[in-house]
Amino acid sequence: MSEPFLAEIKIVGFNFAPRGWAFCDGQILPINQNQSLFSLLGTTYGGDGRTSFALPDLRGRTPIHVGSSDGGFSHPLGQKSGEETHTLSAAELPTHIHEIMGSSSPGDSNVPDGKVLGVYSEELYRRNTGVLQKMSSSSNLNNGSGQAHNNMQPYLALNFCIALQGLFPSRN
Questions:
Q1: Which of 11, 17, 47, 87 could be stapled to 53 by a disulfide with Cβ–Cβ 3.0 to 4.6 Å?
Q2: Cα-based angle 81, 86, 87 (whole degrees, multiple of 5)
């Protein structure tokens, strides 16, 4: 393998960082022992910039190219965004209707369980007298439970490693 560029990131299918490389796991490194690497990364990924800096942390993240996307979103170097789980709010749901199905035939039961609405020959509403009954649970749909859902695309976990040693890249 040819000598890598300093700060080059590679994906590997084994479970260790080769000599001269480190996992992209956000570890903090001392500037005084990694001055060339710090000159490339700075504090883009963390650290105080006086004595320490951080390597990129790609654990649980999908890398994307920096710049602006077609949707007009800007993605500066080192920006983290997204979420592994998400709880939907009512504002995120498309407009929709829950239609009540019924029959044009007269009703033949006063028990709603397993039935649909039928044509009622008398007035539909009445004063609140007597014992009220909840509709059958099969008549009411419980949509959601306020719980977050998995928000991750299909993935394959591999190790990302960054070169701690190598050729210092020159600019064009």
A1: 47
A2: 140
d(CA 27, CA 11): 17
* Residue 21 domain-assigned (yes or no): yes
Taking only the tens place, the pLDDT of each residue in 62-101 is 999 999 988 889 999 999 999 999 998 888 888 877 777 6
Residue 67 backbone zone (phi > 0: left; psi -120 to 50: alpha; other: beta): left
Q: Are 120 and 105 in contact (CB under 8 A)?
A: no
Nearest-angstrom CA–CA distance, 158 and 63: 12
Number of structural domains found in the chain: 1
What is the bridge-based pairing of β-strands 117-119 and 74-75?
Answer: unpaired
| Direct distance between the N- and C-terminal alpha carbons of the chain, in angstroms, rounded to an integer | 24
pTM listed for this prediction: 0.71
Phi, psi of 100 (to 5 degrees): -95, 125
Residue span of the structural domain in which 37 resides: 1-62+155-172
In angstroms, the Cα distances linking 122 to 59, 109, 125 are: 65, 14, 9
SS3 162: strand
